[in-house]
Amino acid sequence: TQLLEQSPQFLSIQEGENLTVYCNSSSVFSSLQWYRQEPGEGPVLLVTVVTGGEVKKLKRLTFQFGDARKDSSLHITAAQTGDTGLYLCAGGRVGKLIFGQGTELSVKP
Amino acid sequence: EAEVAQSPRYKITEKSQAVAFWCDPISGHATLYWYRQILGQGPELLVQFQDESVVDDSQLPKDRFSAERLKGVDSTLKIQPAELGDSAMYLCASSFILGAEQFFGPGTRLTVL
Q1: Mean pLDDT value of segment B75-96
Q2: Nearest CB to A101; choose among B41, B56, B91
Q3: Which domain holds residue A88?
Q4: Mutate to test the interface with A, among B34, B41, B49, B51 (most CBs of A within 10 A)
């Protein structure tokens, strides 16, 4: 049973387009983290959100934690080729992280 | 900048052989995690240490996998014997305390032939 569902699983867009990745669960998490992973490398932490309704911005990336702390979204404005990679959401519970299956993003020039 | 170190980066082995992976967490981080990531999926926790003690190894296949962190610093994950289905990326992560943000190493890509 996948506790965290990410959608879409694959996304291919042109440079300059906007996109949103969703991370949904029926369970409540104490925190939600987003990571970006490049092929052959470990995940790199982008952001942590802990409060329901919280919104954080990191340059062109906007992260939101749902009011009920069960879901989250990542919005990228004006995507660049350097944004290409695997985006992973991970929910924190009892000192552990539960990962979604990831969204593979490809940004074409 | 402090980083989690892992070695080797790549390992190719034949089935039924033994393999071992090493992880050195960020200095001062008490909690260490080993994850397995199958291609196209998110990481899955195998074992979690708090200092030298195992906190959670419920997902570790204990018939063939073992992990230790004897002095509460670096850690070793062993597989004996390796099976074809063990081919995956093995990731190590550490956090300052239990429940804090986790930082990942570059991983070890294991291929079992």
Answers
A1: 97
A2: B41
A3: 5-108
A4: B41
